[in-house]
Amino acid sequence: MKRALVALIAAIVLASCRTEPPTLPGAAAAAVVSPVDGIVVGVVSAGLGNVSSFELRAAGIPLTLEFMLGELENPTEFPPGHLAEHQASSSPVRVYFRLEGERRVAYRLEDAPEAGAS
């Protein structure tokens, strides 16, 4: 009984220590079509201009979507470092992407309209 309680507490602690949000798996991830609008919830970068990936919470999708950053069509209009500003302000972005295997690779980023804006 005591061992089972300790195992249960350990499992709860480990689950609560998870640092990354859950991502959309397999077939459900492939069902998301480009472009997608959402709020940036995480940016992986080695500096302002060196973004490698980011996570997006899209409207109507309960989990986050991970995007690798490919060569952008519009890097001067929307520099990769601008993603951090969108994350800080919770301003939505529009992501155009293609699937490479099961990975979503972003090739164009834009400011998305605010929810409720016409």
Rg is 17 Å
Structural class of the helix and strand makeup?
alpha+beta
Mean pLDDT: 80
Strand fraction band?
25-35%
Number of discrete domains: 1
CATH topology: OB fold (Dihydrolipoamide Acetyltransferase, E2P)
- One letter per element, helices H and strands E, the order comes to HHEEEHEE
Q: Oligomer, anyone?
A: single chain
Description:
The protein has 118 residues and is an alpha+beta fold. The chain has a single domain, classed as OB fold (Dihydrolipoamide Acetyltransferase, E2P), CATH 2.40.50. 24% of the residues lie in helices and 35% in strands. It has three helices and five strands. It has a five-stranded mixed barrel. A hairpin with a 5-residue loop joins strand 2 and strand 3 (64-69). The radius of gyration is 17 Å and the shape is globular. The N and C termini lie far apart (60 Å). The model is unreliable at 5-21 (pLDDT under 50).
Summarize the structure.
This protein is of the alpha+beta class and 118 residues long. It is built from three helices and five strands. The protein has helices at 2-16, 26-30, 82-89; strands spanning 36-45, 51-58, 64-69, 93-100, 103-111.
